[in-house]
Design brief:
The chain folds into 2 domains: 115 residues, Cobalt-precorrin-4 Transmethylase, domain 1; 120 residues, Tetrapyrrole methylase, C-terminal domain (Methyltransferase, Cobalt-precorrin-4 Transmethylase, Domain 2), CATH 3.30.950. Helix content is 37%, strand content 18%. Strand 8 and strand 9 form a beta hairpin. Helix 3 crosses helix 4. The termini are far apart.
């Protein structure tokens, strides 16, 4: 009987591959076709909280590892996530690292890319629709405007300790500011923008859970945003869209809200009047 000698390289499993995939803002129909295909062939999926569990129906064959990352909440340490990615790839697995929104915006992808390169792991980046663009779609508004905003700045209010954001430059830039993770830091954001020279009358529209079934908007201004957010009990995840490009849309939303409120009050008054008439009829009988 012929014996085959197995070398150590043959005993070792083939190194897998990691896919850093953007899951989009939450509406599963906004997931890219490529993302859906990769989920369907994945051995392991490391999923963020903001990616949403609905997408997991696309990968029933995969082992799911929840690596929660949400601003202001307890999160899985980034270093642990990086070690998991390397370990699973070295075991020969096809690994999908599923992140909410787009991989390249505020998702700490640079650290994961560095870890994978350092370990010699093959990887690919698959973009997704970021929450800022989903917010604009929800508002039926353009982030740029021929007269008011020739560009857009995507900013996180939740930076590393000691990180300096050039608020004065941004305040004078005439750019539309799309601020992520700004709800918990609304007071600091407001103070920074006003101190930087941005007018207190500048429109601010907050979009909570953009693209999801429970989405809602809160219209305000830089001067009033803190009080308005508190009154409306705005919650994360929410994107703040700030700038004159939002003026017309903010006015339209405010007008629609006023009409809806007036209609609700009229309906309530009509119901109350009907109840009074019914009570009077009963007493007469």
């Amino acid at each position: 009987m012929k014996l085959t000698t197995l070398h150590s390289t043959q005993l070792r499993p083939k190194t897998g591959k990691v896919f850093l995939v953007g899951a989009g803002p939450g509406d599963i129909e906004l997931l890219t076709l490529k993302a859906a295909r990769l989920l369907a062939m994945a051995d392991v999926v490391l999923i963020d909280d903001l990616a949403g569990d609905e997408v997991l129906a696309l990968c029933p064959q995969a082992r799911i590892i929840h690596v929660g990352k949400r601003g202001g909440c307890k999160s899985t340490p980034q270093s642990f996530i990086e070690k998991l990615l390397v370990r699973e790839a070295l075991a020969g697995h096809a690994v999908v690292r599923l992140k909410g929104g787009d991989v390249s915006l505020f998702g700490r992808a640079s650290e994961e890319i560095f870890a994978l390169e350092a370990a010699g792991i093959e990887f690919e980046v698959v973009p997704g629709i970021t929450a800022g663009l989903a917010a604009a779609a929800e508002l039926k508004a353009s982030l740029t405007h021929r007269d008011h905003a020739h560009g857009v700045a995507f900013i996180t209010a939740h930076g590393a300790e000691g990180a300096e954001i050039p608020w004065r430059a941004l305040a004078h830039s005439a750019l539309t500011l799309v601020v992520y993770m700004g709800v918990a830091r609304a007071a600091l954001l407001q103070a920074s923008l006003l101190a930087g020279g941005l007018s207190g009358d500048t429109p601010v529209i907050a979009v909570e859970s953009a693209s999801r079934a429970d989405t809602r908007t809160v219209c305000s201004t830089v001067a009033a945003m803190v009080n308005d957010f508190a009154t409306q009990q705005l919650k994360s995840p929410a994107v703040l869209v700030i700038g004159e490009a939002m003026a017309e849309r903010a006015s339209a939303i405010a007008e629609a809200a006023a009409i809806a409120e007036a209609a609700a009050l009229a309906e309530a008054a009509a119901l109350a009047e009907s109840a009074q008439l019914a009570a009077g009829t009963t007493r007469v009988a």
